[in-house]
Design a protein that fits this description.
Layout: E1 7-8, E2 19-20, H1 21-25, H2 50-70, H3 73-84, H4 90-106, H5 108-118, H6 120-140, H7 144-173, H8 178-195
Antiparallel strand pairs: 1-2
Helix pairs in contact: 2-7, 2-8, 3-4, 4-7, 5-6, 5-7, 6-7, 7-8
Length: about 200
């Protein structure tokens, strides 16, 4: 990690050299280059290699647990109507599931900013925790508001972080094969839609 120096011109008119500010005042701001963006010597993504394809595999797993989970909302609707929330109308129960879909897609601008600032590790780690925690809280929920908070909010935010973190991570490892890589990763959503219910 190279330290970034801010320069203060001593005298720009006579061509003298510039001294770094941190050597003058000692309070220079230290910044780090993000470690999440792979690049070759030419500054382009590697477009392959073992690490790049492992990122695609990781993205596949994230798609499976985010959009694959989301593909099973019909099963949740039926289960809630017949068991846990049988005193509620179908449209009231559908709010739990439709808000989850909204949160998953609506978090894109926020997750994009987090990815740009901190990388995919922050999104995927936090998203994994929130998604699993939300699923665990669903198993303990007995009331409508508990299911709403656990599934729509907590699990929805976690799944959104997984999905957007994986999509952005795969895209940074490929340029000419990006469509193939994203297509393979997104196939996890279809497999998840078959496995999860």
């Amino acid at each position: 990690m190279d330290q970034v120096h801010k320069f203060k011109p001593e005298d720009s008119s006579d061509g003298t050299s510039q001294a770094p500010l941190d050597s003058i005042d000692g309070d220079a701001e230290k910044t780090e280059e993000p470690q999440y963006r792979p690049a070759t010597a030419a500054g382009l993504p590697p477009n392959g290699g073992a690490r790049a394809w492992l990122v695609v595999l990781g993205g596949w797993c994230c798609y499976l647990s985010s959009y694959g989970w989301l593909s099973s909302i019909g099963v949740f609707q039926t289960y809630y109507e017949q068991n846990l929330l049988r005193t509620y109308s179908s449209s009231t129960i559908a709010w739990i599931l439709s808000v989850q879909v909204f949160v998953l897609n609506g978090m894109a601008p926020i997750n994009g900013k987090v990815f740009d600032s901190y990388g995919s590790n922050a999104l995927i780690t936090t998203g994994t925790f929130l998604h699993v925690f939300g699923i665990m809280m669903i198993s303990l929920s007995k009331e409508y508001y508990q299911l709403f908070l656990a599934q729509s909010v907590c699990s929805g935010i976690g799944a959104a972080m997984l999905f957007h973190g994986a999509t952005n991570a795969v895209a940074t490892w490929f340029s000419s094969r990006r469509g193939l890589a994203l297509g393979l990763a997104s196939s996890g959503a279809s497999i998840g839609g078959v496995i999860v219910p």
